[in-house]
Amino acid sequence: MNNMEIENTIKEYLKEVKKALPEWLKEKKEHKEILVDLEDHLREKARELSNTGEITLKSTYEAIEHMGTPKAIAKEYKRRGTPYVYITKEMWPLYLRVLTVVFAVVIILNVVAMFINIIFENPSIEQIFGNLISGIQLGILISFAVISIIFVLLSMEGYFPEDFKSKKELEKEKVLMRKVQEEGYPISKKTGKPLKPFIKPLEEIIGGGIGLIAGVFFITQPIFVGLLDPLFSILIRIFGILLTIEGSLDISRGIIGNYKPSTHQIIHGIKIILKFAGIPLIIFLALNPQIFPWFYYNEGLGLWVNVGISVEFYELFRNVMIAVAVIAGLTSIEDIYRIIKIQNYK
Amino acid sequence: MIKRVKGFDPEFMDYASKFESEINRGISTLCILSIINQYDDEGIHGYQISKDLQEKTNEILIIEEGTLYPILRKLEEDGIIKAEREKTGRRRKFYFITEKGKKVFNFLSGFFSKLTEAIAPLFDVNVKLKRDQYFYCPNCANKIDLSNNDINFCDVCGHKIDPELKSRGFLNE
Fold this sequence. Notes:
The structure holds two protein chains of two kinds. Chain A is mostly helical. Chain A is 71% helix and 2% strand. Chain A folds into three domains: 2-78, no CATH class; 92-164; 201-345, no CATH class. In chain A, α3 packs across α4 and α10 (230-256) packs antiparallel against α11. By secondary structure, chain B is mainly alpha-helical. Chain B has a domain at 2-97: Arc Repressor Mutant, subunit A (Orthogonal Bundle), CATH 1.10.10. Chain B has a three-stranded antiparallel β-sheet with strand order 1-3-2. In chain B, strands 4-5 form a two-stranded antiparallel sheet.
């Protein structure tokens, strides 16, 4: 009877410990080993505390007292992350990523809802923007609150981002880490994980090469010689110079490869200047549609003739050129993004 | 310690016990690491660690023994110690200090020793460091064993220590 009571007491204690353990640990096989170790320790302690060298019910209770409450043991397992604004430092990057994705989904859903609203209900401009802004605001506010609460709770339980990954994924990451360490690739200071190469050298060389050829073509203008408006010809040459420089810079980046991050940042800075330098030229072209060439093959003469674009298309031409100028300006966002991203590789 | 005394004012007991466990937290991890370090290649199992901890600290530093395992798990996860299970018999888990762990332990042990020496006057006690056996890096407090003759730099901060060791007569000119 006494033996059964001892066994039941031990079992009950371990059951309570298991119940109190954090979920991330219970999901792993490891928790079984932990319980085995605790049981082993408990029995040894109970044996030591009994005068006879045999475990008694009294010594079992005493040993349990020495072991600590299940809650205290579990609390120690949960004390895992580095404290950082209620969410642990380890969970912080995942928190930001989830927020970004959910915010993006909220914005997309609201934009889709706006289009559906426009198609079916024909609302006023005020209604469209009013609904869009309030919808995005509410969506972001609710998702921010819910996600933040979830992440605070996960941090309190001692979760790490790894706990959401399968064994296979973790093994894959380990292999990648080993490879990265061997090859000396950079490791993120924030996450401690390997950073993906920030450029694909071959892509940069091919892209830069195409730009370089186009630039040289614009500078030399080997075809339609004498047919272009002299002003347009100069404009194209300037574009050619800008394109040649940009192409050469891309080729240089490809040659440098995933090294010298500061040099890459400087090159992106120069590219931003080049992109903005092209905008006044496009605007000049938009304001002077008469210089833009439009070729027509005169069968009678057997020659190509530059007739220019028809006056009725000038408005359309201007709009297209303004759109091109805006796109050219927007492409510099990519360079700004890359400058910021490359900062992590330093 | 405070938990052993019965019949204290509950408010005082609660405050004192919280403070006590705050003080014990880091120290107990360091002491556990020190015990594992002493066993070096031999390794040590959890029960023996808790037994040694009690005996070597004259039963002053007492932890709830069940909380030893989460501490060991964390040290293992951080690469400070490694664990191996016995292949036969009771299949107990034995813990060994790693190279990284030794480096971390030497540094923390040096820091803790210097800290205890520095704060000793505040409690009107004397702490005498074994300066004939160990050298404490003046830059980072790393504890360097003087029985190792081949030391020129602190292995933690890289501080050049041989001139100081020579001036103290630990190294030949």
